[in-house]
Design goal:
Elements: H1 3-13, H2 18-35, E1 43-44, H3 47-57, H4 62-81, H5 93-116, H6 125-134, H7 141-160, H8 168-179, H9 181-200, E2 225-227, E3 230-232, H10 234-241, H11 244-263, H12 271-287, E4 294-295, H13 297-305, H14 320-340, E5 344-350, E6 356-362, H15 368-384, E7 390-393, H16 402-417, E8 422-425, H17 429-436, E9 446-447, H18 480-489
Parallel strand pairs: 6-7, 7-8, 8-9
Antiparallel strand pairs: 1-4, 2-3, 5-6
Length: 496
């Protein structure tokens, strides 16, 4: 909600169609995720880059803009690869502060024409201001009223974040409203424009218009363009861009470093890496018809206030739909990892009566994705201690599925046949019912807690005649066969 309207506006500031701003926002955010070093920086179209671009390509076709993006990216990348980041050390805090302040002034003056709804021809800062002042009589009430309302709205919501409240919920709500001021302003303005247009058929202020759908064709920047009824070659285009090929990348690097120093929580900023990431963002951006980009002060401020933890925040600037999909995918992957490869505590223990045994405790429940993994872990560690009986702590098992129950049954059969013995500790009624549903009455032995594991618990039954020698369970001193009868009667399974 912040990136999209700014991208559309800055494209117009550069004299381009709105879609070019969106292309820039997409590729810049995506590239910085992988190569950026400052988590607060938000790469994309900016008013400063838009103004510089416009001053060098005014009146020329879009191919000039794309070529400028490519060449600026090449210079930035070369500066980073040659480790010229040390040049930033010669930029004093006064220079950075002055650059930031000058940028703010330039942005304000450049936005006056749109704010007041008038048209001007001058592109330079102070001549543009003079022309605006000379056309005061042409100010449109609708545009001005909307602009003033938005400014008041933004300033008012900014102050909400400074209100102190002892109530935690109120404090968080005020902070959320304050940090969402840009998105809320765009949303409310869009709703007003939509409703006004639907009822009146027109609006008293200028609209962006229709933005083409879809992604751009991917390809190398054009090396020729039609201009003034003739075809301009690569050398002609480069000559026309002039000093912009040097000025644009230098200003972009300075902007990134200024943002990094202003918002970064890191003590040292890797300027060379910032040059590399910025260069790659512009080079790749030229392949999708993007305009020159760099870090944005406004969006970086929002990111910093939101408490971002890594450059991955750039992914959420791509689109709302994409961020939801990516977030859902990551959550699913985290869950799959946790359930398929749970942490398993495995250690040697000694009971109060001196019995040494292998204690195994999975951290999470047991379902089919982790069943084979648990079996492999048990076998691997038991092979190192083949004479040790096994105590499998099921405290974390809320319930198990059929596949997990079969795996536990297989473990019990395997180690009981080897006359080693395996006991299941802390088994709740739901898990016990699922185990008993496998149809093997005397194949599983239980123990109420790991503190009650003793020699009797691991008494070995005759697998050929299990009914003649049932395993003694330490739950209230009963035989395990008594538990089986309780389950058959429903005294345990009915607890579900």
């Amino acid at each position: 909600m912040t990136m999209i309207p700014q991208s559309v506006a800055y494209a117009g500031l550069a004299g381009l169609q709105p879609q070019y701003g969106l292309y820039t926002a997409f590729i810049g955010s995506f590239t910085y995720v992988f190569f950026g070093s400052v988590k607060e920086v938000s790469i994309g179209p900016t008013s400063l880059m838009a103004l510089l671009t416009f001053s060098y390509v005014v009146g020329r076709p879009v191919e000039y803009v794309i070529l400028l993006t490519f060449l600026a990216g090449c210079i930035e990348l070369a500066m980073g690869l040659f480790k010229l980041g040390f040049l930033v050390d010669f930029m004093s805090p006064c220079l950075t502060s002055g650059f930031t302040s000058a940028t703010s002034i330039i942005i304000i003056i450049s936005q006056l024409k749109g704010f007041l709804g008038i048209s001007i021809k001058n592109n330079s800062t102070f001549p543009a201001l003079q022309e605006v002042l000379s056309k005061v009589q042409e100010i449109k009430v609708g545009d001005t009223l909307l602009g003033v309302t938005c400014v008041v709205f933004l300033m008012g919501f900014k102050q909400l974040g400074k209100i102190k409240s002892s109530n935690l919920t109120t404090k968080k709500l005020l902070w959320l409203l304050s940090i969402s001021k840009n998105a809320l302003t765009v949303f409310v303005s869009s709703v007003v424009a939509c409703l006004w247009f639907n009822y009146e058929g027109s609006v008293p202020f200028k609209l962006t218009g229709i933005v083409p759908r879809g992604l751009p064709d991917i390809g190398l920047p054009a090396t020729h363009a039609e201009f003034n009824n003739s075809t301009s070659g690569f050398t002609d285009m480069v000559s026309s861009l002039g000093s912009g090929i040097i000025v644009v990348p230098l200003v972009a690097v300075l902007a990134n470093v200024a943002i990094a120093k202003a918002y970064s929580s890191e003590a040292v900023v890797d300027a060379s890496q910032e040059m590399i990431s910025l260069g790659l963002a512009n080079i790749l951006g030229s392949f999708v018809k993007a305009m020159p980009s760099c870090g944005a002060f406004t969006r970086s401020s929002v990111a910093s206030s939101s408490g971002v933890r890594s450059p991955l925040q750039g992914l959420y600037s791509v689109s709302v739909e994409m961020s939801i999909v990516i977030g859902a995918i990551f959550n699913v992957l985290v869950l799959l990892k946790a359930w398929s490869r749970p942490g398993i505590l495995i250690e040697k223990r000694t009971s109060e009566k001196g019995l040494e045994y292998l204690y195994i405790k999975p951290e999470l429940g047991l379902f089919y994705p982790a069943a084979d993994y648990l079996t492999e872990k048990v076998k691997k560690h038991h092979n190192k201690n083949p004479t040790f009986p096994i105590a499998l702590d099921c405290y974390g098992f809320i319930k198990i599925d059929y596949s997990a129950a079969k795996s536990l049954e297989t473990l019990a059969k395997t180690y009981n046949k080897k006359e080693v013995g395996i006991v299941f500790v802390n088994v709740n009624s739901k898990v016990l019912c699922t185990l008993m549903a496998q149809g093997e009455d005397n194949i599983v032995s239980l123990c109420q807690s790991s503190y009650e594991v003793n020699a009797n618990t691991f008494s070995v039954r005759d697998m050929e005649n299990p009914d003649e020698k049932p395993l003694i369970d330490s739950i209230n001193g009963r035989k395990f066969s008594e538990d089986i009868r309780d389950i058959r009667k429903g005294s345990l399974c009915d607890l579900e």
